[in-house]
Amino acid sequence: SPVSERLVCDAPLLSPPQVLLVFAEEDEQSSGFRWACDKAGFRCNLARTPQSALECFLDKHHDIIIIDHRHSRYFDAEALCRSIRTTKASENTVIICVVQRHTDREESSILPLISAGFTRRYVENSSRMACYNELIQLEFGQVQAQFKLRACNSLFTALEKSQEAIEITSEDHVIQYVNPAFETMMGYQIGELIEKELTEVPINEKKADFLDTINSCIKIGKEWQGMYYAKKKNGDSIQQNVKILPVIGQGGKIRHYVSISRLCNDNNKVEKTCECIQAESQTDTQTCRHKDMRKGSLDVRSTTSRGSDGISQRRRSSMARVHSMTIEAPITKVINIINAAQESSPLPVAEALDRALEILRTTELYSPQLGTKDEDPHTSDLVGGLMTDGLRRLSGNEYILSAKQTHQVAGSLSSPISLNDIPPRITEAMENEEQWDFDIFELEAATHKRPLVYLGLKIFARFGICEFLNCSESTLRSWLQVIEANYHSSNSYHNSTHSADVLHATAYFLSKERVKQTLDPIDEVAALIAATVHDVDHPGRTNSFLCNAGSELAILYNDTAVLESHHAALAFQLTTRDGKCNIFKNMERNEYRTLRQVIIDMVLATEMTKHFEHVNKFVNSINKPLAALEENGNNGDGESIKTVLRSPENRILIKRMLIKCADISNPCRPREQCIEWAGRISEEYFAQTDEERRQGLPVVMPVFDRNTCSIPKSQLSFIDYFIIDMFDAWDAFADLPNLMEHLNNNIKYWKGLDGRNLRVLRPPP
Questions:
Q1: Which of 103, 224, 384, 446 has the most CB atoms around it within 10 Å of its CB?
Q2: Whole-model pTM?
Q3: What are the binding positions for Zn(2+) 2 in this chain (predicted)?
Q4: How far apart are CA 342 and CA 357, in angstroms?
């Protein structure tokens, strides 16, 4: 159509292309490209280092990047290109590689450059006119093509928002795209339809001769329009007014079919008609875009639906606040309200509410789509390893754990020392334990890998835990020693040092002013105890491993939150089986039940499959309401802020977020601590991969192969996917500028190693 032609073809005329030149030194080649940019009227920037190039690109979003690949002693051009390609902004950027001219040896392959993300190469030629010709060819070739692809996002957004059901198939009638309206009308999800032949999906109910009539029309390049009976996924029949358009592509042949349908109005039914209209010719580049964009259509929907986030967030928040109502579940009330609203709503609103109901009836309301991140094996392996309960067991091997394992109890341990009898070296190692930069590894060395007892004694004394629990210091000492003895010192990461580190982070967060305003003394006690026991008896293997191995724990807990359930249950078993270490024995029954409930909830919150649910609820129920109060000038309105902070539901969200952040705060620690933790968790994952291969189990995280894994890449993937958003939200609540500074510094450190293609923890001397 004229509108789409103008949208796609005129886009390059809106503004001149922007060019980024990345040359370590000024020479005739860089001067030639600068002159060419001036002559062509292109806007040009110059960068001397990979870091400045990346920063400049993220600021300007250039259309063309020209990187000097002739002198590897200055920087790694391929590594820079890969870094740029990891950014969303580079999706439509043309990146050129300038290579040396060699006349005395055989032509080298261009494949390594393509693999690094370069669009094409330019053999060095400092002639100004050669540089100018290269830029002009790029403008009317790759750059213009990329502008057309950008414009297609708008067209697909229109498809996604269309109230008419739209289906696109290939010339062989293989489904390549359906829009949300089609999913709603037919009751299918897009994943059930893509790459399926129409014959595999029970969409039509018409007789064969009627379908032959339709095919005879569209196969000669004409539109067909008429009444069509279709069968939904649930078996219900519906009558549609359908238009099917053949799209002419390469070689003048039909390459796609577009079907546009709308439900017939029962009050306005018409007789079946069959009308053929000559189809307009389309260019091949336009038709191919439908196939190219079908995967991206999911991303388009997720980005274009963000405008309704405020409504969905208020809905989720309100559901949380009415959770105590016992007549019917909150989600049922919401669905009933929407159903009632549909009865008096116009058709477009009713259809939109249908879509909302489908989403609300799913089980995963908070889990995000990976988008482009799932293309990174480090991210996909981490997500698979941490956020799933494993594949079904594929071998007869079984991993025996814990059910018959003996655990250390108070009577089998030596008598712990008093807080007043701590050796000077240990006392010195704990001097700054109230500061975030406290070095847990120094305490680990001073205590011979028993930091939890000593740090626990000091922190619990500072928070008055014995007074609250009405227990003696000797009982607390025995309890801490029993808990520490049941952490596995053989684990490189999940040992008592990790527990002490999480305890320290928890105590630090509890000391922040906003947190102190929010939580009661019983919450503080629960948080410190939960941090202490949250990984007790951890085997150094993930939940996915235990489920795949058919371990006794996985069977006991039905493959659901296996380790977290075990940590919580064992902690209370160890505590209550012996009066010498039972810190709860003097508590009043109802207070103990409340404390126990909070501890269990916090330990279970460390399970990663619910990560995004916890973070999103925190943002929607706490961050955003507090931000709204500040924006409305109510920053000093203590009652309004107190209402947000002190509601029982929000206090639960804050406690969950607190222990989650404490549990995975390693990337926010000072650099040397961050590096040490990264090495320890990598070694634990390497050991799991080794064991999976020995036992013939599914390898949950194949990227964690000790011979090939890039630790910097794995850290960057973990930080990008799990850490940044969560700590942005926690920082906005608790005010933690020092943590965010460490996080940014550590990101730069890992990127520096990755940019040099180093796979190790530290650069070579």
A1: 224
A2: 0.56
A3: 535
A4: 11
pLDDT along the chain (765 residues), means of 10: 43 71 92 93 92 91 92 87 89 90 77 90 91 90 76 77 88 86 85 73 51 72 77 80 83 83 58 40 35 31 35 38 42 73 78 78 60 59 66 41 55 56 91 96 96 97 96 96 96 97 98 95 98 98 95 95 97 95 96 97 95 91 89 70 90 97 98 98 97 94 94 95 94 96 97 96 92
The CA-based angle 194-197-198, given to 5 degrees, is 105
Q: Tell me, what amino acid is at 702?
A: P
Counted residue by residue, the chain has a size of 765
Q: Establish whether 495 is an annotated binding residue.
A: yes
Say which DSSP state 374 is in.
G
Q: Which CATH fold topology does 162-263 show? A: Beta-Lactamase (3.30.450)
**Residues recognised as catalytic:** 494
Instruction: Please state, in angstroms and rounded to a whole number, the distance separating the CA atoms of residues 254 and 712.
Output: 48
Cα gap 590→747, rounded to integer Å: 46
Of 1.10.1300.10, 1.10.3880.10, 3.10.20.280, 2.30.110.10, the CATH number of 377-388+436-755 is 1.10.1300.10
d(CA 432, CA 435): 6
Tokens of 172: 């062989």
Q: How far apart are CA 123 and CA 128, in angstroms?
A: 14
User: Is 256 known to sit in a ligand binding site?
Assistant: no
HEC readout, 650-674 = HHHHHHHHHHHHHHCCHHHCCHHHH
Distance, in Å, from the CA atom of 551 to the CA atom of 663, rounded to the nearest integer, reads: 25
Cα 438 to Cα 452: distance, rounded to the nearest angstrom: 14
| 663 assigned binding-site residue | yes
φ, ψ (nearest 5 deg) of residue 67: -110, 130
Pairing relation of β-strands 275-278 and 222-231?
antiparallel
H runs (alpha helix) in 606-705: 611-618, 624-631, 638-646, 648-663, 671-695
Is 236 marked within a binding site? no
**Strand order across the beta sheet in which 165-170 lies:** 175-178, 165-170, 254-263, 237-248, 222-231, 275-278
Which pair of tokens denotes residue 133? 């010709």
| 562 vs 556: CA distance, rounded Å | 8
Distances in Å between the alpha carbon of 168 and those of 281, 290, 483?
Answer: 16, 8, 60
